Amino acid sequence: MTATTGQQATARAERMRLLVQPVLVLILVGGVLGWAFTRDLSATQKASMNVANIATLTWQHVLITVVVVLIVLAIAVPLGTLLTRPGFTRLAPIFVGIANIGAAAPAIGLLVLFYLATRTTGFWIGVLPIAFYSLLPVLRNTILGYKEVDPALVDAGRGQGMSALTVLRRVEFPLAVPYILAGLRTSLVLAVGTATLCFLVSAGGLGILIDTGYKLRDNVTLVVGAVLAVALALLVDWLGALAETYLGPKGLR
Amino acid sequence: MTDLLPAEEHTGSGVEIVLDDVVKQYAGQADPAVDHVSMTIPAGETVVFVGPSGCGKTTTMRMINRLIEPTSGKITIAGRDTHSIDADRLRRGIGYSIQQAGLFPHLTVAKNVATVPGLVGWDKKRTTERVDEMLDLVGLDPDTYRDRYPRQLSGGQQQRVGVARALAADPPVLLMDEPFGAVDPITRGLLQDELMRLQSDLGKTIVFVTHDFNEAVKIGDRIAVLGNQSHIMQYDTPEAILANPANDMVAGFIGADASLKQLTLARVRDIELAQCPTAYRNGSVAELRRELAEQDAPWGLILDQRDRPLRWVSPEQLATAGSLEDVGDPLGENVSLTSTLQDALEALLMQASASAAVTGRRGEYAGIITIDTLVHALQEVREEHADDHPVDEASAGEPTP
């Protein structure tokens, strides 16, 4: 009931961050775009540095991130749920091990290997390796979330006549949600960061600006691409923090 | 009817539970956790399973609502084999209260209490009314507590909500697994008092597990003292167990203060009181002196006109007294016919006369209690239970009337 001073300080810092972070994103985006568009841009620069192109690339980047996270959620949450059910817990190390490999391997390596294996390029060739790469946080936190549920609560639920499935739905899952959301936030940040590599397999994203700027030795394009990628990552992290703060069960906050 | 729960118009008063040769053997263990236990838990009584940690008392209790399935043997509730009822439905008809309450932290107090009504499909109005009724019953104001979350409650309040939740669907049977084990002693005492008050109104069949023998003596109509593998060492009323423990283990479990515990169980009205010479405050000094001398009594009592005792007086004090109006020592703690013998002992220890004046309902003199009275009363209880047979395996499960 009484939070320690340490917890209170952390909570205050977190609230501050929730306010400051979106302001920072606005400043970064406004600043870098203002800086770029008030300059004399060459014809080649104008080819990539126009509002329509930047909007398209940003949208592609967001789309990659969202699809990756949806795939991660669709795989990791049910898998984590299954792996904590009686009889399946022994399989957990295997799947966590596989997800560990995905997370430990460099994202760029996964992308290239997947491209080499499929010999194709495009949206899904970018999305799938990144989903594999971002799987671990949600999977590990889902398992952790279920493990942290006090066994006495499961006992209380069963003892009152809830079926195992009802206990899972009404007690275990809601109590695991804060952990899953924390994992989701980490996965989001991983996904939005590694999506900058998707240009390698022609899947689009802000990485294209960085790549173009680098290849043409065009610092304006390079800086705009890099700063926008950072701003988007901060924004996505902020949304994750928002979800963590407001989507968890009310009684636990 | 497949449920234990009462139909809407009935109340779920207690039903009989019978354990018949119940065994629980875990795979990979040499000895069974519960070894051939048979017992009858009478309808509407509170039966306390008490025994050392790991003796299998909780396992035995959990087999009643099939949270643990017996390896062999049969358990019937209200004459129906529990195995013939779907386990989830069975449990909805059996209230369940555990240590630290086990409230769902993400649900409000109201939603917690409404768990079983929700599972058995009560409509919203009936559930809401029932939740408020239950919170009232356990002494929590519904308007204040309904929408709170468990973490906003004290340990004692959580425990009350736990009891309210267990009773919400009005089950005939209540299983309580050390429900008050995690609260401070003062709160525990209050919760015990309240459970006893509830039980005297509701008349459920309660199976209560504890390792605290004092708690067992206080709340149990019967106590089953369990040894290893849930062997029943003794199954009887608290009075009988305290008066005549079946074996050394039971005696050891009771502790060295069996007689003091016994005193908490009997009321002053249940025993034969002693008498002493009395006189009204306007009576004669010489008369009282003569009576004291005749009976060789060390103390007499002075009463007012309505028979209420006022002061103790000794022959020495009377020797120099002119009237009975202001002579003698004041009475101490008041002992009434409904006080426990322990209260009486406490009162008489505080008196120079080593006796306590007992008053009736209107405060009138009813007799006195001395150490001899108490010793005599305890002796009678012991004699009454002296012929209780030490428990043997065959008859262990039958409650002696």
TrEMBL record, chain A:
Pfam families: BPD_transp_1
Membrane topology: Multi-pass membrane protein
Parts of the chain that traverse the membrane: 18-37, 57-79, 91-116, 122-139, 188-210, 222-243
Coiled coil segments of this chain: none
Subcellular location as annotated: Cell membrane; Membrane
First-listed, main subcellular location of the protein, grouped into a coarse class: membrane
Record keywords: Membrane, Transmembrane, Transmembrane helix, Transport
ABC transmembrane type-1 domain segment(s): 58-240
Family: Belongs to the binding-protein-dependent transport system permease family.
Protein name: ABC transporter permease subunit
Native organism: Rhodococcus parequi
TrEMBL record, chain B:
Keywords, sorted A to Z: ATP-binding, Nucleotide-binding, Transport
Short name of one Pfam family: ABC_tran
Family listed: Belongs to the ABC transporter superfamily.
InterPro entries, sorted: AAA+_ATPase, ABC_transporter-like_ATP-bd, ABC_transporter-like_CS, CBS_dom_sf, P-loop_NTPase
Ranges of residues in domain ABC transporter: 17-254
Source organism: Rhodococcus parequi
PROSITE patterns (alphabetical): ABC_TRANSPORTER_1, ABC_TRANSPORTER_2
Keyword Transport in record: yes
Gene Ontology MF terms in the entry: ATP binding
Name used for this protein in its record: ATP-binding cassette domain-containing protein
